[in-house]
């Protein structure tokens, strides 16, 4: 580790020594700090030399050979040479005029490769040190090809006289060199500008294509570049402006170093948010101040002393509401409607008709989230977006079925959701839960339809089998016996008579089969006696005769409301099946069938005094049949042991008029 960091530490130490020596020479030569901060650029060049070299050394110490770190060091080296030249030009050193001019020209030339070559390469290769793709490699080659032409701006100066008047020195280079250089300067400036614009284009494209950690790293660089460009807009456009604003350029290596080494340490989106808010506020305050002063000056030309005071008071009063409005606008752009959960919930509610996928998309759009999903019973029911590494979970309230959760992905750069986001998600959980309930009901409806179709086809198959194998065979035998009796009526009358008697018995059996088939479709007793009468008849006749000593009691009010045919059949079948199960498997001696009806449903309850069993009842054919009959009507059925036997309860919805 120490060997790996020796090189970066040595470079940083050498840079610091050169900068300190230049400042010592500066002050010994009789110059002041104000002179260093003026057009001499000693202050700004020193800051860039130290900061770029420092951050480059940090990157190289942790990522040896990283191209971004090497470019930072190269950038700092260019400005270190420029600072060294400024230190040599003071009276403390006292160089001859010719040497002083050569050093001055070299100092002007030395820093040019930094913004013209190093900075575009940093933008192109950030954050991993590689171009965006193979197609973008020629841009890096073209950027490096500009390096030999960086002395062009100073060649014209070197080919001209050193001063004005008769005492001017001879030019350092032939005049023809200066003329050629003068003509090449516009071309050089245009090429450098195109390279920088193309580099910024590559950066924007990389941001659009990136996801996860790379996007978070790029956000750091974009924030630094945007802040520097905003503060130095005048210098970028007119090549002139406040010199001290160049001190913001070290923000770029600082942000890039944090992105490479500690991108998850700070919330870059929060930094961008606050930068936008205070940037817009600062611009607004400046414009408001200038506008108010200009307006008051036009109204009261002879009393200008009051204008700045009035302007300051107006700006101070307007700052708080302006900050609130700008903060709300920036938050809406970056975080959606998290500060207005009601509006977000309304927006999500409008998507309920689009299904669960549409609701999740609305959640992501409302809060600017990259991912949303609903998980239930260990599986993902629906998802939207790409799942990030960090997620937040919100419990959903669902009326029926297993519990479910809403999973949302955190935005790039966030380690956890803010309180406003969590409050908004808690409110949005309600429409998401409704959408999940709708999906579950739709799935249940589909399953119910499938069961109904399967039951219908099974019933058709059973009827076909009974008609073909039972009734069909009997009728075929009747036909053959009738033919035989007809053929023997003259030759063997006694045998013909016996065949006719057999024929009568077969027809009686066929009639019984027909009655059985009709009874299985719908018990005739329901049409003759109604549900209550049919159950009482079955209790008095069949159950009492088939199981001596077994008592079945029917408990129901005398006046049941008119029941739909489907409800009657389902209630009758469920009751008879429950009693049969209690007789066969429960070991009971008494059973009670209770019927109750309210405005919404018919309640059928069958309880017995049998053993009931130790645990939940297994789903056999009978129990499954009862569940299916209740489910076909949209009802529910519960069955299982109790403390005093077994109990079956069915709730069958009534049709509403």
From TrEMBL:
CDD domains: HATPase_UhpB-NarQ-NarX-like (cd16917). The chain crosses the membrane at residues 9-29, 41-61, 68-90, 110-127, 139-163, 183-205, 217-237, 243-264, 276-300. InterPro entries: HATPase_C_sf, HATPase_dom, Sensor_HK_TwoCompSys, Sig_transdc_His_kin_sub3_dim/P. Gene3D superfamilies: 1.20.5.1930, Histidine kinase-like ATPase, C-terminal domain. Keywords: Kinase, Membrane, Transferase, Transmembrane, Transmembrane helix, Two-component regulatory system. One of its GO terms (molecular function) is kinase activity. Residues 566-656 form the Histidine kinase/HSP90-like ATPase domain. This is Sensor histidine kinase. It comes from the Bacteria.
